[in-house]
Fold:
Amino acid sequence: MTTIYYNNDANLDLLKNKVIGIIGYGSQGHAHALNLKDNGQNVLIGLYQGSKSWEKAVSDGLEVTLVDDLAKRADIIMMLLPDHTMASVYKESIEPYLSTDKTLMFAHGFNIHYKAIVPPNNVDVSMVAPKAPGHRMREVFIKDSGVPGLLAIHNDASGKAKEIALAYSKGVGCTRAGVLNTTFKEETETDLFGEQTILCGGVTALIKAGFETLIEAGYQPESAYFECMHELKLIVDLLYQGGMEYMRYSVSDTAEYGDYSRGPMVIDSSVKEKMKDVLKSIQDGSFAREWIAENDEGRARFNQLRKSNAQHPIEVVGKELRGMMSFLNDSD
Structure:
């Protein structure tokens, strides 16, 4: 079993008198920065000149500066940029100012694990990865709760890298829910695998296949949408709350029997073999190389895939139906 850290395992005093630099002010960046600020920390935001987030961060009561100035001033530098832009920003604006008294942090291990960023050995390098989108992370923090997180150490030059990372975890609220000890390798590879085979790629492919099967059989698009897309949230919420057993307890016996008897007909052993192929491409770095090259070459394939998927019939009918569902705008 992995080690899980909670509030009592972390000491916020270790961040006292330190400048915590947050690079990026998007979904994750704003949540990290505001949670740390609310916990009494000295937070500095680093953005590029002309960033649309600049005024937003200032209006939230935060000091904002350019990334290279942040790299000079900050004791802790948290990189919260998209994977495909992070390496160039690091090379141009952070690496020249790294010194042995600084800590370089990440919320995802992609660039470290695949060596797009190779920090010097005399600098602490760690990861605190909250397991939730930034808006959710901020929402539960305000309610005196937190989202779980992952913690990993890549370099421990000072001998205090884990203690500082735990203090940071407490500052953003993750130790309220629990922080799991892991490695950059494990976090990166499991995160990519989950996204590609289940959470994003697997789920959306399954939804589209189910929708298309019903449409091709002559059923109404609206009925197909409700069955294959809309009701998915009901099931996911049950799974989230109590696992598969609770979900099966909550649905009808007919649905439960269909789950046991027909689910394996759709997701059979061949799917698991394909999942292994996906995992292999993550482990050997071929997916990372493909994604880096895609960005270096202008994202032509990515943009075409985005466009074609946005035009799928389930998206068209879904927009119409969701437009009539005023309850979707209700806050939780």
Q: What stands out?
A: Strands lie at 4-5, 19-23, 42-47, 63-66, 76-79, 103-106, 124-130, 149-155, 179-181.
